[in-house]
Design brief:
The active site is at residue 215. It catalyses: Cleavage of a beta-linked Asp residue from the N-terminus of a polypeptide. A hairpin with a 4-residue loop joins β11 (327-334) and β12 (339-342). The strands form two sheets. This protein has an eight-stranded mixed sheet with strand order 4-3-2-6-5-1-11-12. The chain has helices spanning 3-22, 48-70, 75-87, 132-142, 150-160, 173-185, 268-274, 276-287, 291-301, 346-349, and strands at 32-40, 108-114, 120-126, 147-149, 216-221, 227-233, 254-256, 260-266, 308-314, 319-320, 327-334, 339-342. The chain is built from ten helices and twelve strands. It is globular, with a radius of gyration of 19 Å.
Length: 350
C-alpha cells in the first residue's frame, strides 16, 4: 500500500477543489474546444489544393469534438478522439501524414494529459502504430510510467494489441518528395515549407531560412472545469534518427492542470527551451494573468518570432490561440455558440 502517495493525491484533490472555489469556477461555465493542424510561414497565396483539405479536416474534427462535448464525453476522451482523427488525415504532419527522417523512416510521437489528476502519457520513436495518441493514453492508464520510446514503446503496443501497420503505410509519395527536397537543400524542414526554387547555396543542417511548422493538437474543457490536452506529430523533415521534439515532453508541447490545457506547435527546440505549455499555466498561477494574457505573453514576449503557436482553454471556458508565425491552422468552439476556423490573423485576410 502506497500510503504516502494516497495522502498526496488526497491533499492534491483538496487543493484543486479550493482552487476552483477561489477562482469562482461554476458547474455551468460551459465547455470549450480548440484544435490545431500546425503553424508556420504560411503564405496568403497558399494554393487552394493545400488549404481547402486542411480547412475541411479542421471543420470535420471540430464537429466531432462539439458533438462529443454536448454528449457529456469527458475532455480526456474528447482530445484523444480528435487527435486520433487528425492522425488519420494525411494532410497533417502526424500519424498517416508523418514526415520522414534522414533515413526515409517515420518516427512518430505523441502525448496526452488530464488536468484533473495531472496524469499523463507520452511516446516517441513509433514506426508502426496507427494512432500514437492512443498508445500515449495507454502508457498513462496501464503503466506506472509517463514516457515510453522506440523499441520499448513498440513492444508495449504489441502487448496491448493496439492497431499497427507496416511502416510503409506511413511513407507517402508526397513526404518522400519533401525529404528529397530537404536533402537537396541540406536542411531540416518543418511543415508547410514551400518548394525550393533555384537553390544554389548550401545551408547548415538546422538552417531556419525556409523552415515552417507543423503538428496536431487538441485541448478541451467541460462544463465542470475539467481540462485535457493532447498533441501528436511526425517531427521534422530530414531530422536525425532518434531526434525527439517538444510534442511528447510534458510542459513543453503539452500541459494541463486545474487552470488550463495547452497544446503547442512550432520549432520543437525553441518550445523545449521555453517550456512553452507550462509557462502559460505558470503565468496564470503565479502572476494571476488571464488565459489570453498568459498565452499572449508566452508567444509574443517569451519566444522568438516565427517559432511558436499554441491553443489553450481555461477552466472558465475561455479560449486562446496566439501564434508568432505567419499563420496557424486552427479551430475552436464554445458552448455559447461561438466557433472559428482560421489560418491567418483576421487583419491579413480582410
Amino acid at each position: 500500500m502506497r500510503r504516502e502517495g494516497d495522502m498526496f493525491f488526497k491533499v492534491e484533490s483538496e487543493v484543486r477543489l479550493a482552487l476552483n472555489k477561489e477562482q469562482g469556477i461554476r458547474k455551468d461555465m460551459g465547455w470549450a474546444i480548440a484544435l490545431h493542424g500546425g503553424a508556420g510561414d504560411i503564405p496568403l497565396s497558399l494554393p487552394a489544393e493545400m488549404r481547402k483539405p486542411r480547412e475541411e479536416a479542421l471543420r470535420h474534427c471540430l464537429q466531432i469534438a462539439v458533438e462529443a462535448l454536448k454528449a457529456k464525453v469527458g475532455p480526456l476522451d474528447v482530445v484523444e478522439l480528435v487527435v486520433r482523427e487528425l492522425e488519420n488525415i494525411p494532410h497533417f504532419n502526424a500519424g498517416k501524414g508523418s514526415v520522414l527522417t534522414s533515413k526515409g523512416t517515420v518516427e512518430m510521437e505523441a502525448s496526452i494529459m488530464d488536468g484533473a489528476t495531472m496524469n499523463c502519457g507520452a511516446v516517441s520513436g513509433l514506426t508502426t502504430v496507427l494512432n500514437p495518441i492512443s498508445l500515449a493514453r495507454l502508457v498513462m492508464d496501464k503503466t506506472p510510467h509517463i514516457y515510453l520510446a522506440f523499441d520499448g514503446a513498440q513492444d508495449f503496443a504489441r502487448q496491448q494489441g493496439v492497431p499497427t501497420l507496416d511502416s510503409t503505410h506511413f511513407i507517402t509519395a508526397h513526404n518522400i518528395q519533401r525529404l528529397n527536397q530537404a536533402k537537396q537543400a541540406h536542411t531540416v524542414q518543418i511543415d508547410y515549407t514551400q518548394p525550393i526554387q533555384n537553390y544554389t547555396k548550401k545551408e547548415t543542417l538546422f538552417a531556419n531560412s525556409d523552415s515552417q511548422i507543423g503538428t496536431v493538437g487538441c485541448v478541451a474543457v467541460d462544463g465542470l472545469g475539467n481540462l485535457a490536452s493532447a498533441t501528436s506529430t511526425g517531427g521534422l523533415v530530414n531530422k536525425m534518427v532518434g531526434r525527439i521534439g517538444d510534442t511528447p515532453l510534458i510542459g513543453a508541447g503539452t500541459y494541463a492542470d486545474a487552470r488550463c490545457a495547452v497544446s503547442a506547435t512550432g520549432k520543437g527546440e525553441a518550445i523545449i527551451r521555453g517550456t512553452v505549455a507550462r509557462d502559460v499555466a505558470a503565468l496564470m498561477e503565479f502572476k494571476g494573468l488571464s488565459l489570453q494574457e498568459a498565452a499572449t505573453c508566452v508567444v509574443h514576449e517569451r519566444t522568438p518570432k516565427g517559432t511558436v503557436g499554441l491553443i489553450a482553454v481555461s477552466a472558465k471556458g475561455e479560449v486562446a490561440m496566439p501564434f508568432n508565425t505567419t499563420g496557424m491552422f486552427r479551430a475552436c468552439a464554445t458552448e455559447d455558440g461561438y466557433s472559428e476556423i482560421a489560418i491567418w490573423p483576421a487583419a491579413q485576410v480582410e
